[in-house]
């Protein structure tokens, strides 16, 4: 066959998915594997949302929608952003997408030219780099430390912005750390990027999963930020493949043109069903589930510290814990394999999220029920004492 495009060599593997495949194979062999790897909620869409989907299917509402999405869904998302995150958004600035991945694809295609450099924090969600590569850009990971909550800072922008730098791609709360950017730090970063006429793409897909201060969208600091969000995490609709993008008005014609050609539209039945997510009784279900995630976090954090698995920064959102495993190993790849094949706990090694902290870091997801987390701690307590590194 003909040679493959060079970008197929540049795109990075997704180690979380590889670990998931291994865990699934072990489960198929009869092993009891506790999944703390993939970031997929154990909750699924509430019954009301499923019922709306069924009614839409029976009514034949499965045809194409506008490339930008159903008008009523865009209006409902705008209302949600105003009432929950303090941001007044014109529905005309919202584009409904095939998941957050679809939104990231459109955003990078619209903003990144071949050779453009985009700054990201290390650690960060690995697929973000690949969207930049797909648009012909060059992702540049900037090591972010615990003291800055593993986020890019204004000082990072001043130090690392170069002649080819075009913008930044950031997330709050973050995957893999579960940490949010402090408001003053975000304000300062925005000012530095704007002073260089750069763009900001902000991933807010975990904004609804917060456990400390009530969150506010980055749009409340700068109305020209490109926002990515999704129905996958807070709304527990991972396989429905539905998300959205909020963009400045001047970008919308270009995004509409790109969406028309690359996507046609997001899944129509999922769009009709998603409107129900914002009904008061359904939002009450999501709020109860958010508190359940918070309970899981609050159980795990002291238990992990007790076992010598240090958490450098307390996560205040999402459903991830970013661990320092250096008491037990200097190789998180090997350690993750030992956890999987020994006590039967699936995790994600640090190299998925960038090289800066890769060897000593591990990501756990607590998107699974509490009794399984308790079993995971019991298994770790029995297994870890034999893994302590010696100084000899």
Automatic annotation (TrEMBL):
Family that this chain belongs to: Belongs to the class-I pyridoxal-phosphate-dependent aminotransferase family.
Domain of life: Bacteria
Descriptive protein name: Pyridoxal phosphate-dependent aminotransferase
Record has Nucleotidyltransferase as a keyword: no
Residue stretches spanning the membrane: none
E.C. number(s) listed in UniProt: 2.6.1.-
Enzyme class: transferase
One Gene Ontology term of the molecular function aspect: transaminase activity
Coiled-coil residues: none
Keywords: Aminotransferase, Pyridoxal phosphate, Transferase
InterPro entries referenced in this protein's UniProt entry, alphabetically: Aminotransferase_I/II_large, AspAT/PAT-like, PyrdxlP-dep_Trfase, PyrdxlP-dep_Trfase_major
Required cofactor names: pyridoxal 5'-phosphate
Signal peptide feature range: none
Organism of derivation: Yanghanlia caeni
Span of domain Aminotransferase class I/classII large: 32-380
Record carries keyword Iron-sulfur: no
Organism taxonomic ancestry: Bacteria, Pseudomonadati, Pseudomonadota, Betaproteobacteria, Burkholderiales
